[in-house]
Amino acid sequence: MMKFKARILLLFLLFSSIINSQIKKIGVPFITNYSPKTYKAASENWDVLQDSKGMMFFANHFGIMQFDGVRWAIVTQPENRSMVRSMVIDKKDKMYVGAQGDFGFVVQFPNGQYQYTSLVKLVPKWARNFGDVLHTVIRNDEIVFFSYERIFIYKNNTIKVINAKTAFDDFFEVGKEIYVSDNEKGLLKLKSNTLIPVENSREFVGLQVRKIFQTKSGLLLLTQKSGLFTFSENQIKPFETEVDYLLKQNQISAGIELSDGYFGIGTRQSGLIVIDSEGHLIQHIDKQMGLQNEYVTNFKIDKEGNLWVTLKGGISLIQISSPLSKIIDGTNSETKIYCSQIYQNKLYIGTDNGVFWLDWEAYKSGKRENVIFQHVSGMSENVWNVGVFGNLLMAFEKNGIFEINGNSAKALAKIDGAWQGILVPNRPDLLLVGGYTGLYLLKKINSSWVFQHRIKGFEESSRIMETDKWGNIWIAHGYKGIYKLKFNEAFDSVADIQFYNDKNGFPSSLFLNTFKVDNQILFGTTKGVYRQDVSSKKMIPDPVFKKYLGLENHIRLLKPDHQDNIWYVSGENTGKMSKQKNGSFKIEELPFRKLGYLYVPGFENIQTTKSGDVFFGTQEGLIHYSVIKNKKYQTKYKAVISEVKSIFPKDSLLFSSRYDILPKKTESLNDKLSTVLSYSNNALHFSFASLCFEDAEATKYEYWLEGFEPTWSDYSLQTEKEYTNLPENEYVFHVRAKNIYDVVSEEAVFRFEVLPPWYRTIWAYILYLALFGVLIYIIIKYQKGVAEREREQLILNQEKELLRNRAELNEQKLALEQENMAIVRENLQTTINLKNAKVASNTVNLIHLNEILLSIKDLIGQIDKKNDPNVNFGLLTKINKLIDHELQGDKHWNEFEEIFNQLHDNFMQRLKSTYPELTPRDMRLCAYLRMNFNTKEIAPLLGISVRGVEDTRYRIRKKLQLPSDTNITEFILNF
């Protein structure tokens, strides 16, 4: 009766949470394990939380560890560098942290860095000696830090301390209440900063309660070694479950109320155990089932409904909300699955190593400890298909055809490889088997299949076969085409063969498949689903499947189930076409996106059952699907920029959350550019991620550098982008993600500015403008100078021209004057010549006259006065005097001197003025010498003898004071 009431009580536990999904009981959820080698920190993790953006944080032995879906990093540490034990976060993303002997808060700065601030300085000195702060919670406007020795309540920058009398055991946040278990007083409730014992509180002493859940009827208690209890109406009662032995033996360490009302219980030695409200086992996930470590320390449900599990040795993400799970047994072995079949409550799978089976009913119930896949003896090669024919389980293997009975298989025919078998239409006793090199026939005799013979006339590989309602056999060949066969009545040979390929309407002869849906033969091609036109016999696109699946993808599989659904594999997408009441179909693909790359290429396999189970054969084992209501595939999430660094001239981080690699900045972000870079740092490297953690490795990203690129990039798996040689500009780097469900994230942005090089700065342009102004001024001044010089040159040229003209005029005038002068000179010369001629003539005449006179005088002198008495000597004397007078007369000389001076530039006057001591005779002699007369010619002119002329010349030389070597004639000529 007590057990019944306790179970009834737990039925109400579901009402305290909103049901968003139903955790699968069949199979094991997909698990992603993150080992210490992956996140490069300590193995021990004690707590986990998620901020408002979706970023995950973990309390690691080395500090607070962050995970953005791609990268792990320790972002900060307590001031005493101790391990972090507990964390909580408020609505403003301010984290409060409990560590070993320390507690405080953590905030993030605009450059991505996190800073830890210790609050221990607010604690009285007498209370600063304490150990691990195991729990940190927010209660209204207070922060409560719990250690075994003391409880610290932080509010308004002050701390109240509550001391343990002996030692506290644990701390629990239950709804809006806080409970504390005390080793001496039992269970206490924290009210108004005071611990108040609950009713019968001492009954809790020694229970070692590790988690408390609130229900409408009371409390559910999880103890470390004693299992589960309820506390209602002031009474503690044990609550029995199907896993009490596991819980008691393996010690409960943590607990979480899941979103669907189930309870997750973490143990120290056996991983995670999930039970329902009645204590039934739903899941037991330990190391054998894929959990990397058995010691669970804490849990967290993220925004996508997945469960994060912190462990003593790593971190695991369990996709508890997924409708897909792996059929894993205790061996935790994965192998390629080519086919599956449920037969007599056993699940059979065909693998590379033969056929295996397990007890399906026991497995579905969750009792998996002793439920493992067992090998069917007799086969150890590739098994391509397993099927039930005539209530018998048949296997088609590399070495032939086998019948499976229990744990062993019997060979029915040893042939060169068998692909699959189908029953001959209207002949349930005949089984047609497609082999590597043809067709084979088996007949059912006495409830057993017996090999008959090989069918003649067809020797092609027959891996994919279907039959139509007219008894035709359709066979798809992977790279040749489609064969349509008709057998003879004895079924021992092919009576008719028709062949279809791209010449008959198919888009290609490659990768053709054949399926039967609603008793109609259909063909999977590289361009959609085709069927044969009844009248033309041509292959044409099927209109129904064209509408829903299009004509762009390779149709690899069509599989109808027992609920009128059609399962398909189209390209990389797996989906379900659910028929509606109006005859249309509803397409559902999102739950199966995970399967995209898991199939064995060419051997896609989907197996359905009447009960609604769906199995997918993949390279990673057998995957099970069952409907889970309200699974949210359109959950919003954010893309984040993890790190930004300038890569030239050397790596320089601009934004990063990694611990202590950037200086702390307290200025707040705004809409302006967050980073200003010099032109030498115009090469940047961006690292980004998305805060969608389900199949994060399949998330794709697109990015766009606004200000440099015209539009978004194509989606890719790349989580980094590098830009080099960015010109000066204001930039915004955008990135957004698209997860496997095609949900696009909110974009993340990073604003920055690249400054121009110094020679393109505003100051440089001002300088250029100033220099340009100076240059213009110089040019203008130069032009003015040139113009002035040109004007001056023009004036000079004009003056020169004027002078030239004047000179020409003067030259003309001079020429005219010269011409006139020439005429005058000519006239003068003529006159001179005439005068010279006259002088010469006169002189000659005078010379001649003087010679005559001298001759007469000589003759007179020869008359002998004594001997010639008849001579009139008186008259002779008069004549002689008259001759002397004539010879010395000045009349002719004066006339001569006048003409001579005119001809010889006043020679006589100049000579007289220069040498005044010269006598007239001397002057006359000098004049005759200037006329270049010789001594003989001069003597008559002077009326003296030649000797007398020479004496006179001598006297004149002396008067002229001429040296002995100077020719007197040359001197007179040059004077």
Give, in spatial order, the strands making up the sheet with the most strands: 1-28-27-26
Specify the number of helices. Answer: 13
β-sheet strand percentage: 35-45%
Uncertain spans = 1-21, 665-673
Helix/strand-derived category reads: alpha+beta
Main sheet summary: 4 strands, antiparallel
Shape: elongated
Overall mean pLDDT stands at: 87
The helical percent reads 10-25%
Q: Strand tally, please?
A: 64
- What gap, in angstroms, lies between the N and C termini? 176 Å
Rg, nearest Å: 66 Å
Describe what this molecule looks like in 3D.
Residues 1-21 and 665-673 have low confidence and may be disordered. β3 and β4 form a beta hairpin. The chain is α+β, with helices and mostly antiparallel strands and 975 residues long. The protein has a four-stranded antiparallel sheet. Strands 2-3-4-5 form a four-stranded antiparallel sheet, with no helix packed on it. Strands 6-7-8-9 form a four-stranded antiparallel sheet, with no helix packed on it. The termini are far apart. α6 runs antiparallel to α8 (891-903), α10 (920-930) crosses α12 (946-960) and α11 (935-942) crosses α12 (946-960). The protein has 13 helices and 64 strands.
